[in-house]
Structure formats: C-alpha cells, structure tokens
Amino acid sequence: MNKYVSTSLVAVLFSGCATGPDLANDPRSGGFFGGLAGVVRGDYDARKQEREDALASIRVANQSLKQDNQGLEITKNAKQSEVRNLKRQVAKLDGDVQSLSAQVANLRKRSGSAESANLQQRVGSLDKRTSALKHRTGGADTAALTKEKAQLEKEYGALLQTYMVLNDTGGSTKARPASAGLQDMPK
Fold it and tell me: Please, which of 43, 55, 108, 183 could form a disulfide with 116 given CB 3.0 to 4.6 Å?
C-alpha cells in the first residue's frame, strides 16, 4: 500500500514539473495535492511575480501622475499670480479714470465749453468700459483682458492729454485774442 501511495505521490510531483506554471491556480482551492502541484510547478511564485510587476507598474504610473500634478500646480500658481497682477493694474486704471472724470467735471463747470462737455462724455464712456473690465478680470482669457487693458490705458493717456490742454487754455482750444491774457498782468 505504501508503495502505491509513494508512486502516486511521485507521479503527481512529476506531472506538476512537466507543465508550466498555471497562474489561475488559486491557493485557496484544490486541496493539499493541488497546493503541492502549485508549489512544484511554480504557480505561486509566478502569481507573486505577476502581482509584484503590476505593483511596480502602478507605482511608476503614480509617480508620473505626481509629476503631472506638480506641473499643473505650478501652472495654476502662475495663472493666479497673473490674474492678481491684472486685477491690480485694472483697479489702478479704474481709479485714474475716475479721478480724471472728476477733474473733467470740474473743468466743465468752470468753462461750460462744448469741448469740455465732449471730453466729459468720452471720459464717462471710458469709465464704464474700465469698470466693466474690472469685473471681468477673473476670466480665463487673461491675454485678451490684458490687450483690452492696454487699449484702455492708451485711450486714458489721450484723454488725459486732451484734459491738460483744455485745462491750460481755460476749457476751450479756440483761439483767444493776444490781449486776453494781458488783463491778468500787473500794471
């Protein structure tokens, strides 16, 4: 009887060596002889290696995702800085335009000229567009907003120059007689 058991055991062991590893061989099933065959054929070592390879692959993918995340974080921080800077610049421009608007209104009260009224209307229009830009500075297209801000700054500069000329001439650019300034001269 022992001879039959030993022969059977040897046959099972050799049959396990004759085939390649069976990755589907589950150590929780198959009983003692199935487990013994799995050990002999290398099923368990192959399963272990397959799982270690999968884990290594997941770690590489995880590292790549971490690097991507760091790059996105840097981009986000740069974009936030750009938006803060743009908001600050637009707020300054808005304040400058409001100040100019008050000065032009003063000039118009003093002179009452059509030119100062026209300038007040143009500054009012610029003030509305600057305020509208101020509310849109959180938008995604900062390049377009920066371009619009530059255009508004250019227009502000031209209106400021016009104001300075009108203010220096008393509110009108019409020619004044040469003797008009003589009355201010001491006698």
Answer: 108
